[in-house]
Structures are given as C-alpha cells and as structure tokens.
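Anyone able to model this chain together with magnesium ion?
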Amino acid sequence: MAFDKLDKSALPQHIAIIMDGNGRWAKKRGLPRTAGHYKGADNVRNIAHYCYDTGIKVLTLYAFSTENWKRPKAEVDALFKLFKEKLQDYRALMGNRDCVVRFIGDKAPISEDIRESMLSIEEYSSQFAHTGYTFNFAINYGSRDEIVKSVKEIATLCREGKLNIEDIDEKTVSDHLYTCGLPDPDLMIRPSGEQRISNFLLWQSAYTEFYYSDVLWPDFTPKMLEKAIIEYQKRNRRFGGV
Ligand code: IPE
Ligand code: IPE
Ligand code: MG
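re: yes, here you go
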C-alpha cells in the first residue's frame, strides 16, 4: 500500500531514541542485566547505519542518564566498561559514513581514559561537519542538568558584560545546550513499553512527535524504526497553528 511506504522526501531531520529495555531483555532470558546491555549496544550500529543510509541527518541515542548513577555500582561499572570497549568501535562505527560524533552530557564525572577517547573521537569526526550528518550519543546526560548548564553560562556572560539580559531569547538558551546548532528532534522513540521522557531533551522536544513501542531495545530493528518514521509521516504537525 503506497500510504505505508517511506516517503523519502518527508523524512524527519532529527530522530532521538531512548534505548530502554536492556535489563528486561536479559531477565526474560534468565541472563544477567549486563548481557542485555551488551546486546543493546550491538544494536546501535544497525540503527545508526539505517539512519545514515536513509538520509536522517541527526540521530541522538540516550545511553546513560544523570539518574542512572543510582543503579548498583556493579551495573554502573559494567556499563562504563562496555562503553569503553565500544568506544574503540565508534571511530569505525559508521564505516565509510562520514558524520560528526558528539557525546552529549556532562563528561566531568567520567573516568579520564574514557573522557579522553570521547574527546579524541569528537575532534577526529569534526572534519565531517560539512556532511551535515551528526550522531549524538547521550552519556551522563540529563536535560535538567543541561538547562542549568545553559543558565550558568548565560549568567556568566551577563556578569562579564558580554551579554545584555534584554538580549536573552530562546536561541540564546538553545545555543548553550549540548545540542547547539542542531535542529530539534522531529521524532522521539521510546521502545520497551514505558511512556515517559526520563529527563531526555526536555527543551528540544517542545514540538517533537512521540512514538512508543513495546519491543525492548535489543530487539528493536531498523524495520521497526522505518515503521515509526512512516507513522510519523502520517501525523499532522501544527506547531500551535491551525
Ligand atoms: C536501558 O536499559 C539502558 C540504560 C538505562 C543504561 P535498562 O537497563 O533501563 O533496561 P530496563 O528498563 O531495566 O529493562
Ligand atoms: C532512560 O531509561 C535512560 C536511558 C535509556 C539511557 P531508564 O530505564 O533509566 O528510565 P526510567 O528510570 O525507567 O524512567
Ligand atoms: Mg529502563
């Protein structure tokens, strides 16, 4: 049915995904939660390749929230160990697909070796800025924390006399978020059956379309992502107009 096919001329520019459900994926199989995290991490490549090859300009994946530190230390340690292993992959992650990689979130509490690898990948990939493709990986990301960061930076500029309070507008706030310079997400996807935002892109998702799936992240395929995009293409976005 023509209506159910992807319309390449009306793609969302920016897709954000909350990679949730790894723990339940493992539990269902009698495996430790970490096994679910490994399986979930393997899925990043499939989804990232699908997005790039389809022409989605910006993909933002939520990997670790500022609240996830509340988990047992063993799980947090396992997540960062996995992240460190996968980091070796990120340079090659996109294969010959040239895109900017940004790690969004507060890097300060992350161990120095991982932080340095993150910075080096960001620096290496910055040469691909001209392509317009960006892959954001949200690690130690919290939207409230990000907004506080923006407020502090703006307040500092005002204190230093570099910015007038009267000149602060929505763009000023956006420009001091981790996502500065990028379009807001058009489509936000949360697999795993939960229907909440869990402190992800609060400012940026003011007019984002939401799509929920009961499938757990490790089982979420590019085909399912395509189904979500087709559903998105049927929506009527009004942005407050008529
Ligand atoms: C998402 O999967 C990964 C992280 C939050 C790091 P979960 O670990 O939250 O999986 P569930 O929600 O417990 O199934
Ligand atoms: C959100 O998932 C964070 C990530 C997927 C990285 P959580 O599993 O931490 O969210 P809650 O606690 O169920 O809201
Ligand atoms: Mg979860």
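The pocket of magnesium ion (ligand 3) is lined by residues 20 (CB under 6 Å).
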